[in-house]
Amino acid sequence: MCGIIGVISSAPVNQLIYDALLLLQHRGQDAAGIVTQQGRKFFMHKAKGMVRDVFRTRNMRALPGSAGLGQVRYPTAGNAYSEEEAQPFYVNAPFGIVLVHNGNLTNAHALRSELFSTDHRHTNTDSDSEVLLNVFAHELERSTHGVPLRTEDVFTAVSAVHRRVKGSYAVIALIAGHGLVAFRDPHGIRPLGMGRSQDGTVMVGSESVALEGTGHVFERDIAPGEAVFITLDGQVHARQCAESPKLQPCIFEFVYLARPDSEMDGISVYQARLNLGASLAKRVVSTVPPNEIDVIIPIPESSRPSATQLAHLLGVPYREGFVKNRYVGRTFIMPGQGVRKKSVRQKLNVIASEFKGRNVLLVDDSIVRGTTSREIVQMARDAGARKVYLASAAPPVRFPNVYGIDMPTSGELVAHGRTVEEIRQSIGCDALIYQDVEGMKKAIGSLNPKLDGFDASCFDGVYVTGDITAEDIERLNEGRVGVQEDEEDTSRLALPNAQEA
Hints:
29% of the residues lie in helices and 22% in strands. Strand 7 (167-175) and strand 8 (179-184) form a beta hairpin. The protein has two domains: 2-246, Glutamine Phosphoribosylpyrophosphate, subunit 1, domain 1, CATH 3.60.20; 263-325 and 343-494, Rossmann fold, CATH 3.40.50.2020. A seven-stranded antiparallel β-sheet has the order 3-2-4-1-10-9-11. A six-stranded antiparallel β-sheet has the order 5-6-7-8-12-13. By secondary structure, the protein is of the alpha+beta class.
């Protein structure tokens, strides 16, 4: 999961890209990078950390030019601790190309071998984004045949990328001296949209909020398999480059990942979460009579729309019972100390008066490992709750995600191989209510009838690219990024303003 931005303008773009990345900070907190182009020269700065920490005044002054890219990274493959794997990535031939990528390639291992043995190209990191850049560069070199670049050559190269690359990818690249190209995988798993400002600036980004928040009018989503080429003078050329594209976006974007004020693939994220709450209400009523619930309390942040709609339909009071500490920093290990794992209690504090003597229904957007849910349920009991019920706006997460979400291995998923009753016992709540898969798909899919479906693989085990085997999942899990206990905690509860920043 990452956030990406690309801009073509007639004015300096460094501040504009910085501002857009702040609006996408919820999509990645591990690293940030910006590259700008002036003439035929690229200027780049990237490092580990949040946007506000990576870019100082001296760094911004060293990023001149009226075209550029930016990325915020949340690593799911490769080495999370390597500065070299921060994006953008650069290759000098053909022309000079810089690239940012959101997603995860499922055949990166095979492509890396092809690049070495057949294409004679070298990759210097474990990042699948560097693999993708080199595949695109190789195909662009083949399509141009050593002559000046034409728009047609860009589309030919993207078509070849679609044939070779598997998995999820939303990509923005700058070709030195020529322009910006943006494209999505043939299933449109990861989001990408385009907009303009009154002065003619064209921006491409992961979520509409990044465009609208920087003064651009959101025009449209880039279609699955489509490539858009924007010349340096702002002319936009578009072409469908995939043979049989389908719009099957990742449903977890709407459940949790995206900001509620974004619109993606014709769907308001906020309305999607309201609909999930309405659908969940039917499940709650069949499990716990509403007159046995005194109060409904969301677990911050992204469950709030679902919880408010649920409370409204059940006629039960909605209350805020948790206050989030937005400034939880890293745990420093001093000499002689052991590793101290961060507790949820450092990230959330309860308002005890909302729990004492009450039957409480907690609402979360999803339940993944179950460890956080277990601790929050205990916090509610410690605050004096008589009974603690837990409802999830999403179905049980039973399968790993291979398309760019840092979803744990099967063994770490609390729902994998367990019944709902077994999960309830593990978490320790008095009742556990899950959304059902079809209810979730209907609640969100009804907002755009033009969708061909969703990638809901972490819920139903169906991988839309059709090329995922058990062996693939095992190999991808071997390369999955983990967070060491003495490293900065980037879980969603630790993020400052995770859904509102």
